[in-house]
């Protein structure tokens, strides 16, 4: 019985929510590219791990209200940067799905590429060192003019190996 | 049963400690009897873990709700398969599964024919046993699977409905097999270092293990993505959640390792690098577990928060410090044997660039994952690092990786001259550029998509040429028919051609990702009964809204007839399920799949008068993603298959000891 009441309540909640965003949806489709550009900037804090564009209004009250507010602002003619600033002022940077590209948060964006660049430079010097070292003491290697010959060489040596195993 | 089940854990712990001590003693006193006793302990340990698993399976299957774990994750009406798979739904059970895999791997390694009489065995056993002691300790004192409740509840809490999906049965199992699998090459590397063996025996001996662990890790991620796609009603498959990142990082470093070992095998170089890579990969598997179980980061995957994560962090720290100590103490020996390069442009260099990019990508993921913590620690401000960040940062790195993958097969070992670069790359490069121009003409104009597909065209051509040249060369000598030549060429060089098949699989996955990320369409509409929704070439007629009852669940569903270009595709039923024993309802999406695209229909909401709101998505090229995943499996299996050729047991030439 308790379960039934519960399901009933849930159904009512779902239907009620449906009618709320229904009114707004006439103006701006929650799944339009226009709305996505604005809403996907903000992380939903209900624990779903999604942004306010993805988060399902039927299971999350938080996003229902948030979406409504976004649509209101969009109807007022605010662009996505203005809306972004507005929310960052209230909630801080945490509300954004990705860190700002300024101040300390710039580190998040830049560091991977700085490290990659530094590692690439290091790699360049290491290879150069190795190549130079080779110049000093010549090693005996089988030189192939191109990959085709190399493949042939490999196949040939594997066949010789096979034969050798058969008879020896 | 309670006593028996708990006994398996505590006796297991005792045996693990005993075996670890006796093997260490055996190594130091060079007493084979002690070593043999420890090896016997390994079998006993495996039996303990297996019996613990069986006990928990039995308790779950027979719904013995007096056990906390059974009560928390199952209910009596749950289908038997989900009752059983609830074993890995929670903390304690999943760690038990992990422990079981670890003991299984241990027995397989130590008693394998190839390792018979090998002096590395005691060392490998000791290292793996240290892991086993940790896991049995956790099972015995931190996350206990066999806790009894004070009262006997009549019903359990039930399994999260989201987890009641075939993808979820297999996703954790494959992921754990991958995680545990990486402990094997790690143990071999450490054993080789301790024994002062600086040759590549450990790499050759664990080659298969590494590929198998890598395959399971790939499968774990793929099944996870597939589950998210069909079950979450969100239309995506990868969200860069901290936990997804945690399993992606070791995948990247293990991929780097699989490539860089080839340099060591061929040129006797990069020894320190390879050992570092395997240490990092192993540490990342523990770090991932720390992230999932500690609750330190917000994640959709998080298990119940507990101090379990802390234990993993400590264990990881100890393991890494010890490993680095061993590495440093052997540094001079490893350094001494460094070789040299012939030229800047060679296959060797391209492997190094490959490593640079893969490890760079792993670092970027790591940095993004921990940045919220860094930011909070440094300036006290929390930030969220989500999907847009990772997409932007990873896309250029991984695309460069695809480019290296396209170019690498055409580069010669040792040295590529300008002449052969021209010869090898002129045609593929021209074709790739033509392909890109054609794409722009056909209306594909997003820069990422054009560049990405251009690189993939190059990759497909170079890989085709690689097969073609091999077949041509073989036929020149053997006069075989093309198919026979191709078959024989491939089975005689399994690792190389298996690797190429995996590359092709990755190319297909990338095509799917680029297509579905750049060209997806989405709409949300509320329609009256009998009305229709149009998206792209599709028309969806909303025919009926109804409710049915299945077991204790109430299901609301809509009948929708789908037409494409006026042609009927059939009737489909997206559903919303309200569970008898779970708060959150979930969406069962209707997916109409084709090679070109998926039509993804979600029933979102409805009203009394029958009006309903649907979210409809068109996700292009999703099937390419799944097909590519399938090719990865085929390629990896092909590479490790126990064929007739090239299956030589590596010869141990390292240090001899009295014990083995």
UniProtKB/TrEMBL annotation, chain A:
Do you know which Pfam families this protein is assigned to?
CcmH
InterPro entries noted in UniProt? CcmH/CycL/Ccl2/NrfF_N (IPR005616), CcmH/CycL/NrfF/Ccl2_sf (IPR038297)
Membrane spanning stretches: 106-127
Q: Which UniProt keywords apply?
A: Heme, Iron, Membrane, Metal-binding, Signal, Transmembrane, Transmembrane helix
Respond yes or no to whether keyword Electron transport is given for this record: no
Q: GO MF annotations for this entry?
A: metal ion binding
In this protein, which residues make up the domain named CcmH/CycL/Ccl2/NrfF N-terminal?
Answer: 29-146
KW Transmembrane (keyword) present = yes
The record's section on CDD domains has:
CcmH_N (cd16378)
Q: Which protein family is named in the record? A: Belongs to the CcmH/CycL/Ccl2/NrfF family.
Q: What is this protein called?
A: Cytochrome c-type biogenesis protein
Organism in which the protein naturally occurs: Neobacillus vireti LMG 21834
From TrEMBL, chain B:
Mention one GO biological process in which this protein takes part, according to its record. Answer: cytochrome complex assembly
How does this protein lie in the membrane? Multi-pass membrane protein
| Single GO cellular component term | plasma membrane
Q: Where is the Cytochrome c assembly protein domain positioned along the sequence?
A: 89-294
Q: Where would you find the membrane-spanning parts of this chain?
A: 6-28, 40-60, 80-111, 123-149, 169-195, 207-228, 248-263, 275-296, 308-327, 356-375, 395-413, 425-444, 450-468, 497-515, 624-641
Q: Which UniProt keywords apply?
A: Cell inner membrane, Cell membrane, Cytochrome c-type biogenesis, Membrane, Transmembrane, Transmembrane helix
Subcellular localization, per the record?
Cell inner membrane
Query: Cytochrome c-type biogenesis protein CcmF C-terminal domain spans which residues?
Result: 313-640
Q: What is its main location?
A: membrane
State the Gene Ontology terms under molecular function. Answer: heme binding; heme transmembrane transporter activity
The organism's place on the tree of life at top rank? Bacteria
**Has the keyword Membrane been applied to this entry?**
yes
Return the similarity comment. Answer: Belongs to the CcmF/CycK/Ccl1/NrfE/CcsA family.
- Functional summary from the UniProt entry: Required for the biogenesis of c-type cytochromes. Possible subunit of a heme lyase.
Under which name does UniProt file this protein?
Answer: Cytochrome c assembly protein
């Amino acid at each position: 019985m308790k379960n039934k009441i519960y399901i009933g309540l849930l159904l009512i909640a779902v239907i009620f929510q449906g009618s709320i965003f229904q009114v707004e949806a006439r103006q701006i489709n929650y799944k339009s590219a226009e709305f996505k550009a604005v809403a996907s900037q903000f992380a939903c804090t209900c624990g779903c791990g999604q942004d306010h564009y993805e988060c399902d209004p039927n299971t999350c009250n938080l996003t229902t209200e948030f979406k409504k507010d976004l649509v209101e602002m969009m109807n007022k003619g605010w662009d996505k940067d203005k809306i972004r600033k507005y929310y960052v002022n209230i909630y801080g940077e945490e509300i954004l799905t990705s860190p700002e590209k300024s101040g300390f948060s710039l580190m998040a964006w830049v560091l991977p590429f700085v490290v990659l660049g530094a590692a690439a430079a290091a790699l360049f010097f290491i290879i150069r060192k190795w190549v130079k070292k080779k110049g000093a003491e010549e090693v005996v290697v089988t030189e192939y003019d191109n990959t085709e010959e190399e493949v042939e060489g490999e196949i040939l040596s594997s066949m010789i190996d096979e034969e050798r195993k058969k008879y020896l | 049963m309670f006593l028996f089940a708990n006994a398996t854990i505590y006796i297991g712990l005792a045996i693990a400690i005993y075996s670890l001590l006796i093997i260490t003693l055996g190594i130091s006193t060079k007493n084979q009897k002690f070593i043999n006793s420890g090896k016997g302990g390994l079998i006993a340990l495996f039996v303990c873990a297996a019996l613990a698993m069986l006990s928990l399976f039995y308790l779950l299957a027979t719904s013995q709700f007096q056990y906390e774990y059974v009560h928390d994750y199952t209910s009596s009406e749950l289908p038997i398969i989900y009752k059983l798979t609830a074993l890995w739904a929670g903390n304690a059970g999943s760690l038990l599964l992990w422990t079981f895999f670890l003991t299984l791997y241990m027995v397989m390694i130590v008693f394998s024919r190839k390792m018979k009489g090998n002096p590395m065995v005691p060392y490998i056993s000791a290292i793996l046993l240290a892991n086993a002691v940790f896991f049995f300790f956790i099972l015995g004192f931190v996350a206990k699977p066999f806790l009894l409740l004070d009262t006997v509840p009549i019903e359990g809490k039930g399994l999260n409905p989201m987890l009641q999906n075939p993808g979820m049965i297999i996703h954790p199992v494959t992921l754990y097999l991958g995680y545990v699998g990486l402990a094997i090459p790690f143990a071999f590397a450490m054993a080789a270092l301790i024994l002062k063996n600086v040759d590549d025996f450990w790499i050759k001996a664990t080659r298969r293990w590494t590929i198998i662990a890598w395959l399971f890790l790939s499968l774990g991620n793929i099944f996870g993505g597939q589950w998210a796609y069909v079950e979450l009603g969100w239309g995506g498959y990868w969200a860069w959640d901290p936990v997804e990142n945690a399993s992606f990082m070791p995948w990247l470093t293990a991929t780097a390792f699989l490539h860089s070992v080839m340099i060591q095998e061929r040129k006797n170089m990069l020894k320190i690098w390879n050992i570092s890579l395997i240490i990092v990969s192993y540490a990342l598997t523990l770090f991932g577990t720390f992230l999932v179980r500690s609750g330190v980061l917000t994640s959709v995957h998080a298990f119940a928060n507990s101090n379990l994560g802390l234990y993993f962090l400590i264990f990881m720290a100890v393991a890494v410090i010890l490993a680095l100590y061993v590495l440093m103490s052997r540094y001079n020996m490893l350094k001494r044997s460094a070789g040299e390069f012939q030229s800047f442009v060679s296959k060797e260099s391209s492997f190094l660039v490959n490593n640079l990019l893969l490890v760079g990508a792993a670092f970027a993921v790591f940095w993004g994952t921990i940045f919220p913590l860094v930011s909070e620690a440094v300036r006290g401000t929390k930030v969220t690092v989500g999907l847009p960040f990772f997409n932007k940062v990873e896309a250029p790195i991984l695309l460069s990786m695809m480019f290296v993958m396209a170019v690498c097969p055409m580069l010669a070992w040792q040295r590529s001259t300008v002449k052969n670069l021209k010869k090898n790359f002129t045609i593929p490069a021209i074709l790739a550029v033509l392909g890109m121009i054609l794409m722009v003409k056909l209306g594909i104009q997003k820069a990422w998509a054009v560049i990405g597909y251009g690189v993939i065209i190059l990759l497909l051509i170079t890989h085709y040429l690689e097969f073609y040249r091999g077949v041509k060369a073989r036929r020149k000598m053997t006069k075989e028919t093309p198919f026979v030549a191709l078959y024989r060429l491939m089975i005689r060089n399994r690792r190389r051609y298996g690797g190429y098949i995996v590359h092709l699989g990755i190319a297909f996955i990338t095509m799917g990702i680029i297509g579905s990320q750049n060209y997806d369409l989405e709409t949300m509409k509320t329609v009256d009964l009998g009305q229709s929704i149009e998206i792209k070439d599709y028309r969806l007629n909303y025919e009926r809204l109804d409710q049915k009852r299945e077991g204790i669940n109430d299901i609301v569903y809509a009948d929708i007839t789908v037409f494409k270009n006026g042609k009927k595709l059939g009737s489909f039923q997206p559903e919303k399920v309200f569970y008898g024993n779970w708060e959150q309802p979930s969406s069962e999406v209707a997916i109409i799949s084709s090679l070109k695209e998926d039509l993804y229909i979600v029933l979102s909401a409805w009203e009394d008068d029958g009006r309903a709101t649907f979210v409809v998505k068109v996700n292009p090229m999703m099937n390419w993603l799944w097909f590519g995943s399938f090719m990865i499996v085929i390629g990896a299996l092909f590479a490790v298959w126990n064929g007739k050729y090239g299956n030589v047991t590596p010869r141990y030439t390292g240090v001899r000891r009295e014990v083995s």
